């Protein structure tokens, strides 16, 4: 069945030594679409230079790629192993130039660095040294992730990508609400100074409001925690909040709680602890 959807473009950025990871990223994105696209009315499109760019003369190769792909993308996923890439004349590599452009525009960037073993003779020392310096620079500018092998990369990227996409959808929704705030127009009645208010009609992206029973609320909460959890069952409260806001009609403020954590504790469904300063929870084992 056809449906209207908002499209977000996900740029896959990397040097040429992480081909397996470049295959995993579109697979994870397609899995997300299969599960979430219809209910969220959002479709994610993986963008890679080898499939979405076209030959064109008249500028630097990377500048052409930037115009054809980078400028219109919404999220960047960067992956590195032992190489940084080829200098573009402006940045140490095309991948780095893409990342720097995203950061300048304050668009979301997810960076992954492989710790998989490699034979020493296959390492380009110059490339590896430049990559190491870039990695340290990025660690000072945000949160990066490391992984060891393709299964580890797939597991981490699947979970973390879902969290960031939920935040991206939420931000898009908030911007839409802000743009659609009620406008005031002068009344046409000459004998009146009243103002006609044009109401804004905005719904959550995925769902409509419904009458919530306690059982239904608990069902939504359990699903939110389970969907946001790591393999050990623990989920960050921020991720749970993003899931609830994006996919359910449950709003803790409707239950007169000032914070989501207090609301979750009141349901007696979860156990809580802190992990590196972040509150996390999981479903109480039966």
UniProtKB/TrEMBL annotation:
Gene3D superfamilies xrefs: LOTUS domain-like
InterPro entries in alphabetical order: LOTUS-like (IPR041966), OST-HTH/LOTUS_dom (IPR025605)
Domain of life according to the entry: Bacteria
Domain spans labelled HTH OST-type: 213-286
Protein known as: OST-HTH/LOTUS domain-containing protein
Provenance organism: Mucilaginibacter gracilis
């Amino acid at each position: 069945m056809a449906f209207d959807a908002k499209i977000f473009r996900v740029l896959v950025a990397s040097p040429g030594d992480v081909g397996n990871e470049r295959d995993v990223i579109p697979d994870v994105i397609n899995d997300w679409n299969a599960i979430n696209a219809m209910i969220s009315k959002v479709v994610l499109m993986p963008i890679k230079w080898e499939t979405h760019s076209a030959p064109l003369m008249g500028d630097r190769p990377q500048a052409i790629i930037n115009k054809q792909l980078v400028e219109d993308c919404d999220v960047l996923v960067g992956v590195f192993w032992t190489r940084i890439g080829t200098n573009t004349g402006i940045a140490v590599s095309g991948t780095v130039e893409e990342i720097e452009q995203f950061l300048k525009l304050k668009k979301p960037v997810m960076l992954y660095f492989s710790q998989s073993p490699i034979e020493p003779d296959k390492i380009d020392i110059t490339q590896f040294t430049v990559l190491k310096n870039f990695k340290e620079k990025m660690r000072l500018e945000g949160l990066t992730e490391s992984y060891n092998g393709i299964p580890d990369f797939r597991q981490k990227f699947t979970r973390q990508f879902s969290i960031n996409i939920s935040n991206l959808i939420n931000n898009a929704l908030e911007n839409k609400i802000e743009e659609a705030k009620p406008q005031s127009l002068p009344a046409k009645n000459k004998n009146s100074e009243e103002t006609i208010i044009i109401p804004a009609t905005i719904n959550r992206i995925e769902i409509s409001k419904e009458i919530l029973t306690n059982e239904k609320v608990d069902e939504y909460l359990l699903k939110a925690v389970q969907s946001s959890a790591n393999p050990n069952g623990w989920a960050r409260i921020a991720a749970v909040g993003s899931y609830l806001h994006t996919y359910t009609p449950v709003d803790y403020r409707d239950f007169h709680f000032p914070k989501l954590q207090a609301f979750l504790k009141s349901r007696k469904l979860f156990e809580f602890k802190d992990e590196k300063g972040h509150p996390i929870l999981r479903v109480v084992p039966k």
